[in-house]
Amino acid sequence: MAITTKVNIENLDLSDPNNLDKIQLDKSSYSKGLTKSIIFTSIAVAVFFMPVTIGGKSDVLFGFIYNFFKNLLGNFGLWLITGVIVANSVVSFYGKFMAKKDSFLYEYYGHDSILHPFFYLLGAVYAVIYTLHVSFEQFTGPDIIVGGSTGGTVIPAIVVGVAWIIQVGAFFMPFLLSYGGIDFIGSILEPFMRPVFRVPGKSAVDAIASFVSSSSMAVIITSKLYRTNTYTKREATIIATCFSAVSVGFAMLVVKTAGLGEHFIKVYFSSFFIAFVITFFMVRIPPLSKKEDIYHNGRIQTEEDRVGEAKFEKGIFKRGIDRAAKRAYTANSIFSEIKSSLIDGYSVMPKVLSLLSAVGITGLIVAEYTPFFRIIGKVFVPLLVLLKVPNAAEIAPSVPVGIAEMFLPVLLIADKVDVLDIGARYFVTAVSMVQIIFFSETIVVMIATRLPVKLWELVVCFLQRTLIAIPLVALAMHILF
After folding, report:
1. 474 falls within a domain
2. Where are the transmembrane segments (predicted)?
3. Cα distances (angstroms) measured from residue 423 to each of 278, 353, 376, 400, 428
4. Is 1 among the domain residues?
5. 3-state DSSP call for residue 49?
6. In this predicted model, what pLDDT tens digit does every residue of 20-79 receive, in sequence order?
7. What is the distance between the alpha carbons of residues 5 and 76, in angstroms, rounded to a whole number?
8. Are residues 47 and 118 in the same domain?
9. How far is CA 292 from CA 220, 238, 266, in A?
10. Does residue 476 belong to any structural domain of this protein?
C-alpha cells in the first residue's frame, strides 16, 4: 500500500476516527506505527493499571511514583505547594481585574468568574495557616482550619496528593493517550458503551483510570481528550460525572473505616455495578442529556460518528489494531508529547490546588461545625424508613454530606460501627462510593480544567445520582446483608 502524503495527513483532523481510517500506510510504516503503539501503550498499562507490591504495600506503579515524590520532599514539598497557591491568589487579582486583554495573564484568568480570585485567596489563607501549623511549634492554627476533620484531611491527603498526581500523570499520559492504545480500546468497546451509556468506547479507559489510580486522574484524562476533540461537550460531561469513581485503594480505606473490611469484595463490586446502573439512567435525563454534541473545535458530531461505530461486526478487532498503528505513526515524538502534556498539567495546577484548598476545607467546615447537613439529612429519613434501611435516623445525615467530601459519610458513622446494623453501614458506604461528585476534589478539578459543565449542573447531578442510588443500594443491601 502507498502511504498517504505528509501534507494530506497534516490536513486531516485525526481526532475523527473516520479520518484516521482514511490513512493508508505501506507495510514498513504500518509495522513502525504498530511497534510504537505496543511499546508506549505497554508502558502506560504498566504504570496506570498493573498492581504491584513493594515493601508489603500493593498499589499501581503510578501510585508508588507520585507517593515517592510526595514523601521525598515532605515538608519542603508542602511549602512549595503553598507557595504556588499563594502566588496564584496574588496574581489572579491582577490577571482578572487589571491585566491587558491581549496579555497572557488575562488569557489565563480572564475566563474565571469574579468570585474566583476570592476563592483563590481563601485557599491561600487556609494553606498558609496549615503549613505554619505543621512547620512551627510556636504557631498553632485554629482547629476549625487545621483539624484532622478539615484542613488536616484536605491539605496533606488531597491538595498535596493531587499536586503530584497532576505532575506524574502529565508525564505518563502521552503513553496512554497519544499512541493508539485508547483508539484500540475505543474500537473494541464502542458497540457496548455507545448504545448503553451513549459515550465512545474510549471512555472505558477513563473509568479504569479512576478505579486503579484516582478520580482526579480520570477527570484530567477526560479534560485532555475533550480539548483534543476526542469527546464532545456531552460526552466529556457524562464521562467526568459518571465514570470518575473512587480508586480501589481509597475504596479499601472507606470500607475498612465502616467496619466492613471482611466484606470488601462484596461491597466494592456491588457499588461498581450500581454506579454503572446509575449512569444508564443519568445519560437519559437532563442536564446530561441536554448537553450539546459539539467538539471543542466547534465541529458538530454527526449521526454517522455515533452510530457507524456502535455495532459488533467482523473485523472490529483488526480495525482497532489498524487505528492504533496509524495513531502511533502520525503522533509526534514522545518527548514532544510529554512536553506538551506537562505544559497542560502545570497550567491547570495552580487553580486546581487553590480551589481544592478553598472549597475542600470550607465544605468540611460546614459539614463538621454546622447543622446544615444534619438538617438536610432529615429529608431522607422517610425514604430510608420506607425502604427498610436500618438505623435510618442515625445515618440520614450521611446521605447529603457526600457532596462535601466522599470520605465524610463514613467518617460520620466511624464512631458508631459497633452499634449500627451492618446493613446501615453498607448503605452509607455504597452510597458514598457511587455519588462520585464532591467539592473537595472532583467538582474542583472539573471546573479548574474547564470541562463544559456548570457548578449548578454538578449539584443537580449529585442529587440525581443520590436519589437514583438510594433505592438501588437499599435493594443490594437487602440481598447481600
Report:
1. yes
2. 37-56, 76-94, 114-132, 144-166, 171-188, 208-226, 238-255, 267-285, 352-375, 395-414, 426-449, 455-480
3. 20, 37, 22, 18, 9
4. no
5. coil
6. 777 888 899 999 999 999 999 999 888 887 878 888 887 778 888 888 998 899 899 999
7. 52
8. yes
9. 21, 11, 37
10. yes
Cβ atoms of 383 and 349 within 8 Å: the answer is no
Enter the C-alpha cell of residue 275: 454506579
- 398 is written with which cell numbers? 450521611
Type and span of the H or E element at 52? strand 51-54
Burial class, 53, CB count within 10 angstroms (exposed 0-12 / middle 13-18 / buried 19+): exposed
Buried b (16+ CB within 10 A) or exposed e, 163-188: bbbbbbbbbbbbbbbbbbbbbbbbbb
Q: Cell 488575562: give the residue.
A: 106
Contact between residue 391 and residue 420 where contact means Cβ atoms under 8 Å apart: yes
pLDDT 10s digits, 436-449: 898 877 888 898 88
The residues pairing with 52 across neighbouring beta strands, listed in sequence order, are: 59
Of 346, 353, 351, nearest to 131 by C-alpha is: 353
Residue type, 23: I
User: Strand locations in 200-303, DSSP E?
Assistant: none
Segments forming the whole domain that contains residue 451: 363-480
Last residue of a domain, one of 326, 361, 396: 361
Of the candidates 339, 361, 383, which is a domain's last residue?
361
Say how many C-beta atoms besides its own lie within 10 A of residue 303's C-beta. 8
pLDDT at 80: 95
- Distance set, CA 450 to CA 146, 154, 170, 304 (Å): 29, 22, 17, 28
Identify residue 337 by its one-letter amino acid code. Answer: E
Element (DSSP H or E) covering residue 60: strand 57-60
Q: Are residues 355 and 382 in the same domain?
A: no
Per-residue cell: 452: 463544559
Please check whether residue 420 is in contact with residue 395, taking contact to mean a CB–CB distance below 8 angstroms: yes
CB neighbour burial string for 428-441, b if at least 16 within 10 angstroms, e if fewer: bbbbbbbbbbbbbb
Strands 51-54 and 57-60 turn out to be: antiparallel
Strand partners, 300: 294
